Amino acid sequence: LLVALVVVGCSGPSLDMQESLRLTQVSSGWFDAGPDSLGRNKLVPSVSFRLENSTDDIIRHVQLNAVFRRQGEEEAWGDAYVRAFGTDGLDAGQSTQVFRLESGRGYTGEQGWSEMLVHRDFVDVEMDLFVKHRGNQLVLLDSVSVDRQLLMR
Question: What is the value of pTM for the model shown?
C-alpha cells in the first residue's frame, strides 16, 4: 500500500499538454552537416523553437521527442530527443530557451547546397513534436513543415 501511495504521489496531476504548452518563435530549414565520409555535402532538416507555458502553474518534468518524416511517407526519417526541463520546471507564462532539433538523416550530394534544395529528387520533410509529461504517454504537441532554406550556425 505504501509503494502505491508513493507512486501516485510522485506522478502528480495529469496535464493536457496540447493546452498547457505551445511552440513559439518557430523557424526551420536545412543545416549544413559538413561533408560525409565520401566528401559530399550533407544537409539535414532542423527546427528551432521555444516552448511557452500557457497555464497558471509551474510545469515540471517534460521530455520532447521529434520525429522527422519525408512528406508522403510513414517511416521515420530521423529523430531527436531532449529533456526540456526537470524539477526546476517552467513557470507560468514563461518560455524556455531555444531548442534546435535536427534529424540525423539528410540529403547528400556533390552539388552545392542551393542546388540540392531544388533537385528534382528532393522531398520536403515535416517534424512531429511529441511531448511527455512525467511518466505519461507521449502526445503530439505540434507538426512543423521544414522550410526549403539553408540555415547557417
Answer: 0.86
